[in-house]
Design goal:
Blueprint: H1 6-9, H2 18-32, H3 41-54, H4 60-69, H5 75-83, H6 95-104, E1 111-115, H7 122-134, E2 142-148, H8 151-159, E3 161-163, H9 172-178, E4 179-181, E5 189-192, H10 194-197, E6 200-204, E7 218-222, H11 232-244, E8 246-253, E9 267-271, E10 274-277
Bound molecules: S-adenosylmethionine.
């Protein structure tokens, strides 16, 4: 009997066994704090089988063992990059930038802001535009440390080039002042201008890292829509570390669905998911 042709056309869906899935979830949580829900199983199967094939390994189990045994391997970046969720936007949760603008007017220059989960850059560039517009004296200055664990997202952030679709949420006044519109082969793209680009330093930084900055204190920290992927003890540990790197009276901006009120006494809710450090 002839075999129906479609059997040859449909590629086999990669699968991941329960043990391997749990192993991957353990490694991801231990390294990056990110909790891998079972709804991510298909996506994990695709990712893990692609990565193991790329390294010429026989199975996902072997891939995970090699990863675990090589804690300083560059493969960790590829593994983590595959599981991060980078959703972000310019002027996301706009009320925070109004609060930031008012807040910095009460602070002494130089202003220092840490954007601790900067993803593809929309958030730190929004902070930079807000700061530029809020500094009052010509010699006032501000800088932003923009970090993320995801090396691919950071690469896009460092490029500072976005589609016109992505910059739709940037008000026209800011768009004209802080972006170059591409022409000819760059039509449809917008590039951030040095006026804001030069205020930002981009670095890879894992919020679970044992070594935190010791030489810098911040007026404000943005860590929005990231702690939701961590469990409560991890969130508490990170919050207490944030408190230790803030200037007196500094503020922490959290995401719309994040509530840190009961996790630590190091911060006090100021309103609209903004917290003031208690010192
Ligand atoms: C949903 S995005 C949020 C982006 C931005 N803060 C916002 O609210 O628009 C979450 C970001 O957290 C980053 N992330 C996840 N775990 C991290 C960790 N352990 N250390 C640093 N960044 C992490 C991810 O790579 C991702 O870019």
């Amino acid at each position: 009997m002839p075999v129906p042709q479609y059997q040859f056309l449909i590629p086999a869906q990669p699968e991941v066994g329960q043990d391997d899935f749990e192993h991957a979830a353990r490694l991801l949580k231990r390294r990056a704090g990110i909790m891998l829900g079972s709804h991510k199983r298909e996506m994990a199967a695709r990712t893990l089988s692609t990565r193991s094939q790329k390294l010429g390994l026989e199975s996902i189990a072997q891939y995970l063992t090699v990863l675990e045994q090589n804690q300083s391997s560059a493969e960790w970046n590829a593994f983590i990059n595959a599981f991060t969720i980078n959703h972000t936007a310019f002027f996301r949760e706009q009320h925070h930038f109004e609060i930031l603008s008012e807040f910095v007017r009460t602070r002494k220059s130089p202003i220092s802001v840490w954007c601790a989960a900067a993803s593809t850059g929309e958030e730190p560039y929004t902070i930079a535009m807000t700061l530029r517009e809020s500094l009052q004296r010509a010699d006032d200055s501000a800088s932003i440390w923009a970090t993320d664990i995801d090396t691919q997202a950071l690469e896009r952030a460092r490029r500072g080039v976005y589609s016109l679709e992505r910059v739709k949420t940037v008000p026209e006044y800011y768009l004209k002042k802080y972006f170059h519109r591409g022409k000819d082969s760059k039509a449809g793209l917008a590039r951030v201008k040095p006026a804001i680009y030069d205020m930002i330093r981009f670095d890879q930084f894992n919020l679970l890292s044992p070594s935190w900055p010791t030489d810098q204190k911040f007026d404000a920290i943005f860590c929005r829509n990231t702690m939701i992927y961590f469990d409560k003890p991890t969130q508490t540990r990170i919050l207490e570390r944030f408190a230790s790197v803030m200037k007196k009276g500094g503020v922490l901006f959290a995401g719309h669905s994040e509530n840190f009120t009961y996790l630590t006494k190091a911060f006090q809710l100021r309103g609209q998911t903004v917290y003031t450090v208690v010192s």
